[in-house]
Structure formats: C-alpha cells, structure tokens
Amino acid sequence: QVRLVESGGGVAQAGGWLKLSCQFSVNIGNIDTMAWYRQVPGNERELVAIWPKSGSSTYGEFVKGRFTMSKDYNDNTLNLHMMRLEPDDTGVYYCNAKIRRRPTGQEEIYWGQGTQVTVSS
User: Between these two residues, 101 and 37, which has the higher pLDDT value?
Assistant: First the structure.
C-alpha cells in the first residue's frame, strides 16, 4: 500500500503562484509514473502533468509553460510549481502514482486526498 499526502494548496491572486507537494510513503524511485490531476468545478478530472520513471515530464495543454514539476528524492516528494495562476486553475489538485509490480505486471494506482487551489481574479 502506498500513501500520498498533498499539501500546499490555498488561495492565490490571479498572476500569483503556489507550490503543491505530494509526499509518498515509499521511495519515489520505485514508482513507475507520478502525476498531478485536477478537478475544476463542473468538469471531469483532468491531467495536469505526468512524469514517467524513465522519461521526461509532460504537461496538459492548458498549462502553457506556467507549471513545473520537481522531485525530491530525499523526502520522497513530488512538487508542482504553479506560476501565473488564472481563475480557471481553481479546483482540487490530486497526486497520482502508478506502480507496476514485478514479475506479475499487475498495475496499482494510488491517489492522494486532494488539495484545494483557489485563484481569485
């Protein structure tokens, strides 16, 4: 079982910034894919950014260069640095992890509890 705990949400003004963090209960070097999703009011949950273990991070089209992910292996943390925030970024942000167990290949998916981000105009 893997636990994910998000932190860092809050209220920011349009044009401002926030840093979200997701702390994992396991060594993040053993996680196949880490990602951030968000659910804005009235919409389905959507991908914000994804980082496969062996590959580069990619971002949703709406990010437009405003967000950046970083990893901290000392703390087993995945961070999401959000800049130039817009009111449309308001929503609940979720951390996600996928682990493919060896040798069975069984995939396990874990979610954090979510953290609220509110951007005021």
Answer: 37
